[in-house]
Amino acid sequence: MSPRSARLARLSRSVTFSACHRLHSKSLSDEENLKLFGKCNNPNGHGHNYKGGELISIRAQGIDPVSGMVMNLTDLKEYMQEAIMEPLDHKNLDKDVPYFSEVVSTTENVAVFIWDSLQKLLPQGILYKVEVHETEQNVVVYKGEETIVK
């Protein structure tokens, strides 16, 4: 394969952000919320240091033959700052982030929020996955809209 041939590569970058939230659904009673979410339904909330081993992964049709990169890491860092750090870091997700006023602030929904925010900034079609570690044991991977066959 010649150096000019397209090679698919994925680039990943991680960040860590701290935020608090309360798992609580407006569709459920207080008793149902407590039963479903347990201690995570604490009325005063609780916090996490969210991080990702590969928080954001992007892919391109090929490694640029001139720069040798899938994407400039400086650009990716700036996009992540705008899409993740500014809206989420050191915030109360339920009170400071309008998206979560109507959406339960589970890690699954945090991953969707990050995906949607990055999609608005990154070149179309290169975002591959968002991986969010709520704890060392709890990890969510989101790869955009995928069809679920029932």
Automatic annotation (TrEMBL):
Lineage top rank: taxon: Eukaryota
Pathway involvement of the protein, from the record: Cofactor biosynthesis; tetrahydrobiopterin biosynthesis; tetrahydrobiopterin from 7,8-dihydroneopterin triphosphate: step 1/3
CC per GO annotation: mitochondrion
The enzyme's E.C. designation: 4.2.3.12
An example Gene Ontology molecular-function term: metal ion binding
Cross-referenced PROSITE patterns: PTPS_1, PTPS_2
Keyword Cell cycle (UniProt): no
Class of this enzyme: lyase
Cofactor needs: Zn(2+)
Keyword annotations of the record: Lyase, Metal-binding, Tetrahydrobiopterin biosynthesis, Zinc
Coiled coil feature spans: none
Pfam families named among the record's database cross-references: PTPS (PF01242)
One GO-annotated biological process of the protein: tetrahydrobiopterin biosynthetic process
Annotated function: Involved in the biosynthesis of tetrahydrobiopterin, an essential cofactor of aromatic amino acid hydroxylases. Catalyzes the transformation of 7,8-dihydroneopterin triphosphate into 6-pyruvoyl tetrahydropterin.
Family in the record: Belongs to the PTPS family.
Record's protein name: 6-pyruvoyl tetrahydrobiopterin synthase
Lineage: Eukaryota, Metazoa, Chordata, Craniata, Vertebrata
